[in-house]
C-alpha cells in the first residue's frame, strides 16, 4: 500500500520544474539585456567599412610589381587605406596607400576603375602576402578589405 501511495504522489515535481524554468528565463533575459546595452557602449558607432571589391595583378621581375585595382563598390578615401606586406624578402611592414607610386592624394576618393601599382626596388613578392586594410579616420581599428597571396 505504501508503494502505491508514492507511485502516484508527484506533488514535488511541479514546483521544482517551475523554479528551474524561472531561473532559466531570468538568466536568458539578463544575458539579452547585457548584450544589448554593452554593445552600444563599445564605440562601434563610427564609420561603416566600405563595401568594395579589389583585384590584384602580379608581375614577377626586377623589381616585382603588384597592381591593385578597385573593381566595384563604394568609393574609398585614399588616406584611409593601408597596405600590409608580410613574407616578402625585404621591405616588410605597413605602407600608407598614398605613398605608393601613382596613388591619388590622401583626401581624394578611389572609385571603381582606379589602379595603383605597388613596386619597390629589391622587393621579392614571390612568397608574400599583401593585405589592403581600411582604417576609419575616427578610430584606430582597421578592417581588411582584400588580400593577395603569392602564387
Automatic annotation (TrEMBL):
InterPro entries the record matches: Flagellin/pilin_N_arc (IPR013373), Pilin_N_archaeal (IPR012859)
One Pfam family of this chain: Pilin_N
Key words of the record: Membrane, Transmembrane, Transmembrane helix
Chloroplast as UniProt keyword: no
Ranges for domain Archaeal Type IV pilin N-terminal: 11-89
Segments passing through the bilayer: 12-38
Superkingdom of this protein's organism: Archaea
Protein name according to UniProt: Archaeal Type IV pilin N-terminal domain-containing protein
Amino acid at each position: 500500500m505504501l508503494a502505491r501511495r508514492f507511485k502516484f504522489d508527484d506533488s514535488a515535481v511541479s514546483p521544482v520544474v517551475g523554479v528551474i524554468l524561472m531561473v532559466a528565463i531570468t538568466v536568458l533575459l539578463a544575458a539579452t539585456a547585457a548584450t544589448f546595452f554593452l554593445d552600444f557602449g563599445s564605440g562601434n558607432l563610427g564609420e561603416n567599412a566600405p563595401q568594395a571589391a579589389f583585384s590584384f595583378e602580379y608581375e614577377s621581375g626586377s623589381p616585382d610589381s603588384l597592381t591593385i585595382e578597385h573593381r566595384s563598390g563604394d568609393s574609398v578615401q585614399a588616406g584611409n587605406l593601408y597596405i600590409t606586406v608580410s613574407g616578402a624578402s625585404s621591405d616588410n611592414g605597413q605602407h600608407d596607400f598614398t605613398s605608393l607610386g601613382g596613388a591619388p592624394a590622401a583626401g581624394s576618393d578611389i572609385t571603381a576603375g582606379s589602379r595603383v601599382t605597388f613596386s619597390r626596388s629589391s622587393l621579392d613578392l614571390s612568397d608574400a602576402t599583401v593585405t589592403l586594410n581600411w582604417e576609419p579616420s575616427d578610430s584606430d581599428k582597421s578592417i581588411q578589405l582584400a588580400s593577395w597571396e603569392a602564387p
